[in-house]
Amino acid sequence: MGSSLTSNLFVFILAAFLGYEVVRRVSPQLHTPLMSLTNAISAISVVGAITIAGSHRDGVLLISLGAIAVACAMINVVGGFMITDRMLKMFKKRKDK
Amino acid sequence: MVAAAKTTALHAATTWPHTAHWPWYVTLVYMAAAVMFALSLKWLSSHKTARRGVKIGEIGMAAAILATLFLPEVRQYNWIFAGAVIGAAIGVLLAVLTPMTAVPQQTALSHAFGALAAALVGTAEFYGHHAQLTAGSTAAIGLESLLGYLTFTGSLIAAGKLQEVLPTRPISYPLQNPMNLSVLAAAVACGVWMCISPHIVFLYPVFVGLSLLFGVLLIIPIGGGDMPTVIALLNSYAGLSASAMGFVVNNKLLIIAGALEGSSGFILSMIMCQAMNRSFLNVLFGQAANGKSAPADDVYGGKIRTTTAEEVADILASARRVVIVPGYGLAVAQAQHVTGELFELLDSKGVDVQFAIHPVAGRMPGHMNVLLAEADIPYDRLQEMEHINEQFADVDVVIVNGANDVVNPDARDNPGSPIAGMPILNVDKARTVVVIKRSLSPGFAGIANPLFARDNCLMLFADGKKATLDIIQEVKKL
Predict the structure, then answer these.
(1) Which residue among A72, B32, B122, B336 is least crowded, i.e. fewest CB within 10 A of its CB?
(2) Which ipTM was obtained for this model?
(3) In angstroms, how far is CA B302 from the centroid of its own chain?
(4) Does A60 contact chain B (CB < 8 Å)?
(5) In chain A, how many domains are there?
(6) What does the pLDDT look like over B103-155, one tens digit per residue?
(7) How are the residues of chain A apportioned to helix, strand and coil, as percentages rounded to the nearest 5?
(8) pTM recorded for the entire structure
(9) Is B445 helix (H, G, I), strand (E, B) or coil?
(10) Does A7 fall in a domain?
């Protein structure tokens, strides 16, 4: 745990810094899609839920907790990317007449 | 190096079942997915590449999910499949059916789902492995559960307020802040006790209950106008709970994705706070704003000039530059499409029409831009506050539709005002200001707006959509 905690913290801090630098450059016009896109991306937590819902050793209660977590995360995976794209599609440049 | 890695893996394997060796290709796919997620956000910085950003995010996500299904610890697929199908179906429905005016509550709901997923995984990890838990791993699970459960209930309350199934006004009671803080302190104390003695199983449900309660208490004192900050903050918490899950299951991809959302939500809430000239603590603990504002009767008495759609059309007929200021009222009145029509009409007559958007207009960051984009208004006409504020002196007509506090000149001119120092749109510098509003009722800050009493301001008392339609008809008659 000790060394993995350190390397995990290392990764966390670098990723938070990367996020800060990248997100800072996003135009305020796109702040709503930004929020739904980051929400979709962090729904990668579905992989943690999958390892629980798919395990053998845990009891049925724990596996069903995992399955509910898979469902919750999948709502954001599918819904998050779709609604982001739906919003971005609406932003158009001036039509030429 | 190899020896060190081996001992680490061995050490981890004895205390932490989920650090079993992953096949090399899963690690590789996870690394690629992390890069794709970062690229996805990077490409959102420009309209040209934004949709490509969504695509690469989807590819990264699909690849990571597929790779995970090949992990040795994944041995049965029925439950995964059932959960995934149900979740995907709900996700499609939400994404397709949510009207653009309801995106803030949909976003709040999705924070609730994301946080619940993290919290449930934390719970499963605790009960699945509590015999092997160390202080460190219990701390990680505790953090994941605390963030997850409090963000879950907090986001549900926020969504309820935004959907107006719960009262949107702040709910307060005596000793609110001391009580909220003592609930949080109790949860933290319970968490610390759990870390010291992970084998006391009854502590965990108490801890979960306190976390759930704290989420509710944290959001009920917050009013509608502070929602942009709060949604951004919950966005950050949802990300952090996913990141905490990464610490629990020892998966760096989760840590990275969660950290990206965490810092994004943090930046957004900072921007929202700056746009209201308030601090985080002030928003969260709902301190009553200091300072006095003049009573409405003194400000407005005998100085209000009302107008009609006909007169507004006449003024617009001789205007060369028009700026429209949308606010939350425009979303409530569903007036974005008629505003788009008015834009087309004036534009076809050769009028230069721009839109001035205050950062906290609406109920979430960027909401007004999405609504106006939905109404086919080109995005190069949507102007940020700093940019448009320099130009108001050259503007013939400003139409304020559904905004109030963000155009209140008191914020700029009266140091004693409760909203003193909040950056505003300087619409009062324009030649003529038309304010479309149902009545003289105050905005979220609860104070009178001296703009309405200015000589260059005309009030058009009507519903935002109906007034805009009337103006369109009168302009067409000319």
Answers:
(1) B32
(2) 0.95
(3) 40
(4) no
(5) 1
(6) 999 999 999 999 999 999 999 999 988 778 888 889 999 999 999 999 999 99
(7) 80, 0, 20
(8) 0.91
(9) coil
(10) no
